[in-house]
Task: structure prediction
Amino acid sequence: MLPVTEGARRPADGTSTDRGGPPGVRPVVDTPSGLRAKDLLSISDLSTDEILLILDTAEAMKEVGTRTIKKVPTLRGQTVVNLFFEASTRTRTSFEIAEKRLSADTLNVAATGSSVAKGETLADTVRNLEAMAPDMIVLRHASAGAGHLAARLCRARVINAGDGMHEHPTQALLDALTIRQRKGRVEGLKVSIIGDLLHSRVLRSNVLLLRALGAEVCACGPATLMLPDMARLGVRATTSVDEAVEGADVIMLLRIQLERMRGYFFPSQREYFRQFGMTMARLRRAKPDVIIMHPGPMNRGVEIASEVADGPDSVILAQVANGVAVRMAVLYLLAGARQEERGS
Ligand code: CP
Result:
């Protein structure tokens, strides 16, 4: 177990009363190593050192939310708006739990029930929220670049919680944390990402992050769902699922995103499962200690068989649990950088 920050006192309700950093990690306001960028919009906003800082901070954050330390006052007095214009279960709830564990004032805005339903633009919505002086905005949106637009209009820090087919940086960070926990490292591992590559923001963020940490990345899917620039990203592309699975340390399945498909990319879901679906039989080609990942939500019986999703190699629910710790780490490190800028 990680050491608790020296001098921390815990009242009966489990709230830590120290300066608010995670146990075992020095408060970022005292370090020169906070995040450089104002916002987290893409994995390319982060240096490799910053990626590792987030993963180490997330490890320490896992103790927050347990019976011994229910919450820390890191973001006390700060307002975080969760602006989710697209459906989400894992990302939205884990950000909200993370914010509450860091004692932030949080509020949730969804497209339904907001003035977006009356035709208000994203820019106007962001300008109006900014007028109420939030400290951070967590944004999910169906359009690529939505976070960049919001960040340009806002003094508030913006965290991209998934923008169309572009990126989902906190998902890639929680995936890397899960891999590192299970394998002890990321460098040198063969990570095969299989599924709907074309429509996947999870793929784009994972490729940037896994390559930065030295993994060998193989991407596999039907030719119709392949990205054209895989080689430029340092990724080996194949349409052969057997080749992708062969010797893999990590297999990450991607959801077939039917809602983003206009036209026919494969004959039927049954046919997709027959050619690309992850089954126990296919898994036999992987390393014996392979782990199975999926960002969710899963299409059981399409990209993954239930016996694989629920089997002994699956770390899918560990990914979800790590989502809270990673999002606490990102919120904490961005908030620390803000305090550095203010000189407090
Ligand atoms: N992985 C992921 O982004 O899941 P949600 O869409 O449920 O947030």
Q: What stands out?
A: The beta strands are 79-84, 105-110, 136-141, 157-163, 190-194, 216-220, 236-238, 250-253, 291-293.
